[in-house]
């Protein structure tokens, strides 16, 4: 892909591409084009055209890409040229809450790390334009602050809070700095007159320091209560116990709300094998995804970049007479 861009000397990234090709050829030789390279990676590479589609708000193209192949691997795909940022991080930054939920419901790691070993919460909450709703959603799914691959200490968490406050994100700072702020919780004990609340779930909206209590919103009823911290325990959302659901039909996302956790779990159980997979996908999704990719690359002036259809079209073309095929003929190293 990079070598094909070498033909366009007017490309604004030409010099960077030239350096990359030179470095690559020093390691693998000048005849590397067509050589299979094994990459020692646990993650699917997030294609540039999918990132571009996300940036332009073309979620249907993103969902079409997700619909092909192993969904659980794809929801954790990383954008190599973007610091190993993943789809979840992109969804947070674009304030796409339903897409965030859809990814998490299908197995996205809420604490996936980027190239700097920082989690989604760590790398996004210091952004000046961070969405409070996006942070709340991450926290309700169990997001944590990670630095250099390690969960931050309470002291570092307070420092994060100060940094966020300095950027004007006071509400986000208060959430992240408290123990249960933004978390989905289960009520383990209740005031004498409200024993029926035990076992019910809520979201801790705000820590009230003066009374050492949390203002919580009950799930399904939206009732607002003030509860002591010792009456609550975390019950992070999971794909099996999310409290709500986001369906994908014909590459469109629709949120489903329920009257209780039991009803939600029954709905998910009824999906059977469909859980963790995009259900009821348009049968023409693959062709549409390829066309969307081609159109997007053309619009961005990157026709030479290989979209998902290019390899397929090459595969269907007869080999030139007298030309020796190199692909698959040798393997050089692991990277």
From TrEMBL:
SUPFAM superfamilies: Ankyrin repeat (SSF48403)
UniProt cross-references to Gene3D superfamilies, sorted A to Z: Ankyrin repeat-containing domain (1.25.40.20)
Disordered as annotated region, ranges: 305-335
InterPro entries: Ankyrin_rpt-contain_sf
Top-level taxon of the source organism: Eukaryota
Compositional bias annotation for Basic residues: 322-335
Name of the protein described by the UniProt record: Uncharacterized protein
Lineage per the UniProt record: Eukaryota, Sar, Stramenopiles, Ochrophyta, Bacillariophyta
